[in-house]
Q: What sequence folds into this?
């Protein structure tokens, strides 16, 4: 069973709950980093633990959610081992995996529907990094 992490803030809570259930039915062992209610919280408190779990090899991929997706993406991308892509449709989800080898998909929960979220996550998880001409570019992302 493949493990995947998920983290959100209060604006992404309802969508996260839907995705946890959905991913579980698809055979994923979902590690839920929270949050666990719609009570206002700070997204870095949940994004950093997700990023750390990927960086230390506990997980290969993750899903992050917040209202716009921007704050969660910024938080996740502070980590050297993370390439988090903000995705608002399936085309962007495919490209962020194929061209950028993203290991976290970030969703703007206030701007997409539940059906769109499921489609984006499915596309992200079923797309592979193409390597080739993209490999050198991805290697340049990390600060040295």
A:
């Amino acid at each position: 069973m493949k493990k995947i992490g998920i983290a959100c803030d209060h604006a992404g809570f309802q969508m996260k709950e839907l995705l946890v259930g959905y991913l579980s039915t698809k055979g994923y062992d979902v590690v839920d980093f929270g949050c666990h209610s719609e009570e206002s919280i700070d997204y870095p408190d949940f994004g950093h633990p997700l990023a750390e779990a990927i960086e230390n090899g506990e997980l290969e991929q993750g899903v992050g959610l917040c209202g716009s997706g921007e704050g969660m993406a910024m938080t996740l991308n502070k980590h050297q081992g993370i390439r988090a892509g903000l995705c608002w449709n399936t085309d962007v989800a495919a490209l962020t995996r194929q061209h950028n080898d993203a290991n976290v998909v970030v969703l703007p929960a206030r701007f997409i529907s539940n059906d769109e979220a499921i489609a984006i996550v499915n596309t992200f998880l079923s797309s592979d990094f193409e390597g080739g001409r993209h490999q050198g570019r991805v290697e340049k992302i990390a600060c040295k």
Summary: DSSP finds six helices and five strands in the chain. The chain has a mean pLDDT of 95. Residues 70 and 86 are 7 Å apart (CA to CA). The first strand starts at residue 3 and ends at 8.
